[in-house]
Amino acid sequence: MFKSGMPVKGDDFIDRIDHLKMFKTYIDNNQHIMIKAPRRFGKTSLVVQLFSLNDYKTIYVDIKRATTLRSLSEQIIDEVYALAGFRGIIQKTKESIASLLKQLRASVKIDMSIVEVTIETLEKNEKNQIDEVEFFLYALDLVEKIAIVQGVNIKFAMDEFQDILGIAKPKILDQMRSVIQHHQNVTYIFLGSIESIMNKIFSSKSSAFFHFARIIELGGLNINELSNYSKTFFTQHAMSFDDSLDTLIGYLEGHPYYSIKTLQTLYYKTLDSSSKIITQEDCINALRVGVYEAKSYIEEVLEKIKSKKHHHAIIWGLANGVKVKNIDSPTLYKTYKSLEDMGYIKKQDRGEYIITDIFLKLLLQQNSDTALTLENEINFVGLAL
Ligand SMILES: Nc1ncnc2c1ncn2[C@@H]1O[C@H](COP(=O)(O)OP(=O)(O)OP(=O)(O)O)[C@@H](O)[C@H]1O
Ligand SMILES: [Mg+2]
What we know:
The protein has helices spanning 17-28, 43-53, 69-83, 89-95, 97-107, 112-126, 132-150, 164-167, 172-180, 195-203, 223-236, 243-251, 256-272, 280-306, 311-320, 329-341, 358-365, and strands at residues 33-36, 57-62, 154-159, 186-192, 214-217, 345-347, 353-355. Strands 2-3-4-1-5 form a 5-stranded parallel beta sheet, sandwiched between helices. A two-stranded antiparallel ribbon has the order 6-7.
């Protein structure tokens, strides 16, 4: 099925064969990794799928959803105790400590000395008597401690890792690194979509996480895999199609989210029709719907691009195959780098840059501002339909 709006796994998960293999090899060897990709390229899905295919002990936190370092730490503590067989430790601390201790004694196979320190720390946290950074570092160390006593290696995924800088001071990276570098029983998986920050954290020599993790870059889905999946799917649902389907898939350049969204529209539209035939016109219409659905997001991206000097002119030039005049090469180079860091463009093997978001490119290719207010006027440059 073509699913959107949530990370996908199982039968809904398409392709990523090589990534899953490499990812699994690293994880099985307790190698920390960082996965970076532009928004909606399937980072979370990749982790969810790998975790669901293997019998790992896992912890998953989405830092974007944490409002404070304290709540993030509580979530980690909750999850690691759940792994050790005890659910809801945070909630229960808020209720009755005496009964909590009794329950813990009866149900977890962890050294009581560890448990006692946890409860003491949680009590201090309740009363705001512990500094939030100290509390966070305690939570991280606890994962290692519990992994050791359980004799396991815990795979710990931190999604939208760059957002840690939104809830803590930059120093947190050094503080974190100095704690987790000693962990032997935890394998860290960092995911991030703001490439500029992820690069700074993991690839800059002066950064705390330099050389800490192997970096996996996620590109688009493999077009052939996506095409085979789609054809099998439509055939199984008694729908017929012609070459337009492949043309459409190729046009979307393997962008996971846009491809899935567009194919989904196509499916529902055909489901509703009496003929069950996917026509060329259906393909164009599905694409049009996709662009409209993405419009406000793309416009936000454009605003960000426009707020930086030369960025719009250069990415516009890239979208339209036009060399930008009047910009010297150092500035050009710097701007390309900056756009790359922002995740909007990517360098290809031959040194050429491409725009990662196909709909952003499409928007930049419209020569009239009214193109997107009048549906029929979108000019799908390069679409052979
Ligand atoms: N391997 C895949 N197979 C099928 N669909 C996929 C795959 N990867 C991504 N998708 C589609 O793209 C959507 C976004 O995927 P996901 O949430 O995993 O991306 P992300 O990179 O974590 O995005 P974000 O930056 O928003 O967190 C999914 O809901 C799904 O529709
Ligand atoms: Mg995600």
